[in-house]
Amino acid sequence: MRYLMILILVSMVAVLSCTPAPKAEAEDGPIETSENLPLDAAYEPGTWIENWDMALKTAQETGRTVLVNFTGSDWCSWCIRLSGEVFTKKEFQVYAAENLVLLKLDFPRNIAQSPELKKQNNDLQRQFEIQGYPTIVLVDAEGKEIGRTGYREGGAIPYVQHLQEIIAP
Question: The domain spanning residue 78 has which CATH number?
Answer without folding.
Answer: 3.40.30.10
